[in-house]
Amino acid sequence: MSPGRGFSLRNKTEKRSAVRLVRLTPLIDIVFILLVFFMLASSFMDWRSIALGTPSAQSAAGNSMEGAMLLRVHEDGQVDLSGRRMSVEELGAALSADLQQDPDRRILVRPMRQVPLQQTVRVLDEISAAGGHNIALSER
How far apart are CA 64 and CA 103, in angstroms? Predict the structure, then answer.
């Protein structure tokens, strides 16, 4: 055996063993620590909310609902804004035009039967995005 040849075999063996010694435990520890850090640093609460009022029986029949815009939410995704039928996407523009004249105008939202809650929330989001803030929700 020549001294150079034996040296090269040992060198290859050392490289193979060095590759085999790489362990995943420290990597998993770091990933776990990062996961815990982001879980603790994140905020899962959505502070965006919509203030809703429910009209009482007296106010529904009284003067407080007088002049309010009536918005009916239908099952098919359409809405009626004071008798005008439109899609939810068109609602924002129509409400913005109406609310420019009277920003404090009351909006009474009345979802029809069998309307999913998510659809009603979407309509409420559109009203809020259009600048409506005096919103009341009615069941009938």
Answer: 16
**Tally of CA atoms within 13 A in the half-sphere of 24 that contains its CB:** 2
Cβ contact 75:115 at 8 Å: yes
Quote the CA–CA distance of 102 and 78 in Å, as a whole number.
Answer: 24
Name the DSSP letter for residue 112: P
**DSSP characters for 13-51?**
HHHHHHHHT--SHHHHHHHHHHHHHHHHH----------
Name beta bridge partners: 87.
Answer: 78
Place of tokens 């609902």: 65
Order of strands, sheet of 78-81, starting from the edge strand that comes earlier in the sequence = 52-53, 135-137, 107-111, 69-73, 78-81, 84-87
**What's residue 5's pLDDT?**
52
Residues of the chain with pLDDT under 70: 1-20, 54-65, 140
Using a 10 angstrom Cβ sphere, with 0-12 exposed, 13-18 middle and 19 or more buried, the burial of residue 43 is exposed
Measured distance CA(117)–CA(123) in Å, rounded: 10
- 126: which residues sit within 8 A by CB, 6+ positions away? 88, 91, 92, 95
